Fold this protein.
Amino acid sequence: MAEINTGGGGGKHDGGKVRSKKASTRVDMTPMVDLGFLLITFFILATTLSKPSSMTLNVPDKTKEVETEPIKASNVMTVFLGKDNKAHYIFGKAATEDPEVKTVGYGYEFRQAILENTRKVGSDKFVVVIKPTKESSYRNMVDVLDEMAITKTKRYALVDLLTPDEKTLLKDKVKLDT
Amino acid sequence: MPAVKVKRASSAVDMTAMCDVAFLLLTFFILTAQFRAQDAATIETPSSISGIKVPDKDIMTIGLDRDGKVYFGIDNQQYRMAMLDNIATAKGISFSDKEKKEFALMSNFGMPINQLKSFLSLSHEQMGKIKQPGIPTDSTGAAASNELKDWVFNARKANNNLRIALKGDNLAKFPAFKNVLATLQAQNINKFNLITGTEAPPAGWKAD
């Protein structure tokens, strides 16, 4: 332990008188420290300190049909969440107009794409349509919603139905059948 | 003149101070921490930059594990019992007092209603061994086979202030989430929380 015996004990030295060794008044705290840290370790492992955070998700009311003005395709960025943590997006054109499908990873690339497209149309008109496919995971969806918060995109929609045109568009990117 | 003796330094370390620190920390941890609840499944949540904390009480948690199985739980034991009473009346099943007590102790569960009674009669060890199959859901959210809707409905009947938190696993596939979403939407619940871990926002980012 933390103490090394340096004294010679109560034995005879040089044939002198035998003296009873005076008991030390110092208490060895080492076992108590051991115990203390053991308990600390236990409490650290067994409890949760940081509370998880939460993001609020508002979805439109399904029971009410709200008439809205159709949005111009030139302002819309449609994001398809594909497999292997990749997102595909089209921007500025409807799926029928043979748009260019770009593929990005989540995170930085995706954020750059959103910011760039926001600049092109202006943040008040920019709309993102998020379309998760069945290949995508829950994490991908949360990531995208998080990007919306980071890039401060106010208008976005979560849509889970793909139109036939979009399906043909994504045919080679995502396996949508079976 | 005798030679000057070098005084040998004592190698005993005074542990008192260290002991004080250890117990101070211990006291701190005991007072601040809350125990991790025993969950029916391990769920690793994705992280987001959202700074809103999950509310302390009146919370209903719908868990979604990596295989798409659905788990359900509410935080208060009293309401948990009331919820079980409600669902027993609705489904025409009766639970004994012991089973009710057992149910009140479970923070969350993922059993279909018809297997719940036999599950509750098991010992704790056996409960831990059984792989819970998850609560049945479906994509329409309102079919008779969708039991999650019954649980949500009866939980809200027991406590009307319940907020809904959805805790999904990183690897859960989207269709599983869609089923849960459909179930909630079918009951006209359009606002809920997604439980996520916390991550730092990118540099220079400021909340509005």
Notes: Helices of chain B lie at 16-32, 77-91, 97-105, 113-120, 124-129, 147-158, 174-186.
